[in-house]
Design a protein that fits this description.
172 residues; mainly alpha
């Protein structure tokens, strides 16, 4: 009979899905993500620029749902998206637009963020957006920087509103 090596029986593992969050914690996360993304949409409407890009929705979900993870810390969120933009624009300059170049830019972003000790997986998608959409760097990069700062500052504020919630950030 073969040895059962499922996660529930493997030595050193607890197995199974994580516990369901308390309703207050789930409401807190969902509310914070929604408010943050609506803020980005509102800012974009006021300045007549698209501020909400898909990778930022993933960043907001990470920051507000898992605020203690290294992926969620301010340096990771902000710096990784800027590194991703740089990788995207460099790839665009060297290889031009296209799916193959976008994939290379995402890989380059992962390498850069790993070397910079700023892991944040949604940033790989920012590089893809840059390569496939070719936004003007003079407009896109400041908007990206501002949007990531808004997301970080919002979590900083809301993490202090709910008693017992982990305080954000764990480190800068």
């Amino acid at each position: 009979m073969p040895l059962d090596t499922s996660p529930r029986t493997r030595p050193g593992t607890t197995g199974g899905a994580p516990a369901r969050p308390a309703p207050a914690a789930a409401f807190h996360s969902v509310g914070a993500v929604t408010v943050g993304l609506l803020m980005l949409v509102g800012i974009g409407a006021v300045i007549h620029e698209p501020v909400l890009i898909p990778p930022l929705a993933a960043s907001a979900a990470l920051v507000h749902s898992a605020p203690t993870l290294p992926l969620s810390q301010p340096r990771s969120v902000i710096i990784s998206h800027l590194l991703a933009a740089a990788a995207g624009y460099a790839t665009l300059a060297l290889a031009g637009p296209g799916s193959w170049a976008a994939a290379l830019a995402a890989g380059a972003t992962l390498a850069l963020t790993t070397l910079a000790r700023t892991p944040h997986s949604p940033a790989c998608a920012t590089a893809v957006v840059v390569v496939l959409q070719s936004p003007s760097p003079a407009r896109f990069v400041p908007l990206l920087l501002g949007a990531t700062v808004v997301l970080v500052l919002l979590e900083y504020a809301v993490s202090r509103l709910r008693p017992g919630a982990p305080k954000y950030p764990s480190y800068w």
